[in-house]
Design brief:
- With 280 residues, this protein is an alpha/beta fold.
- The chain folds into two domains: 61-157, Oxidized Rhodanese, domain 1; 165-266, Rhodanese-like domain (Oxidized Rhodanese, domain 1).
- The chain contains ten helices and twelve strands.
- It has helices at residues 6-13, 32-61, 83-88, 123-134, 146-153, 163-167, 171-176, 194-203, 234-239, 251-266; strands spanning 62-63, 75-79, 89-91, 95-96, 112-116, 140-143, 157-159, 168-169, 183-187, 207-209, 223-227, 245-248.
- It has a five-stranded parallel sheet, sandwiched between helices. The chain has a five-stranded parallel sheet with strand order 8-12-11-9-10.
- Helix 8 crosses helix 10 (251-266).
- The relative contact order is 0.11.
Amino acid sequence: MKSISLSVVIWLLMGIVLADDNKNCFAPVTNANQVNTNKTLQQSIKASVKAKEFNQFDTLCSISAQDKKLKIPDLVLLDVRAKADFDKFRINNSINIPLSQIKVKNFWKSKTLVLINSGHDIKPLIEECGRLRKKGFKKTFVYSNGIASWSKDKGRLIGTYTSKDLKSISPEQLFSDRKVHNWVVIDAVSKKNKKNLDKLLNYFPKSIKHTKVNEAKYPESTRFVFADNAGDDFNLFNQVKQKNKYYLLGGAEGFSDFIFKQYKMTSKQEFTLQKPKSCK
């Protein structure tokens, strides 16, 4: 039987289609090192341009509760949260609309638009604000700290909600925002749940015990996520005097379960080994 080299076996297991002579029939003949170098340079340039544009539109778009633009008569307040969240509680006279759908409403081009979400991550709003301004929506802005801040500063929420609804963040949201903000875990997890806490700290290694929080040690942009065992001690969360703090729904157990489900979903991918076509 013809022996197969170890490298061929590895490539096959990765799902790469190889020819009998160990060459990929479908790959163009290029200098691999040159391609990689050019690709890295292009990615670096694109990232630099994108970062510059984001900073530009962050300065133009971000507004707070004290901004006079919020008192303009032609103001349209656009809540881009999920419909279920909007139905539960909302700002009076706000409009619920997916972020991607705003650009088709040409009749809003003459209006002053303010985009708002939960406040966990306003980066998508800033990016969309930039795109909208380029498309002619010149008076588009982003309410920086989200609907929880609006409730505190403006006091115009309607619906059924608690302070827990306003200050909570789901494991999915936290995981999605892990690289957006400088997160610090406020640890209120018992020793028996250490394994679940370790799962959380794999993604958010900066942590401090809930009894030793000192905000002065951290930059103003720092965001804190309070994690107890199973998301069942909101009273303890309220005892921590901290700005920019969020309560992790389900606690460390909920985050651990979320990670486990994600692992199961991403581990179901099956590789198919195909017989390569002739290179001739």
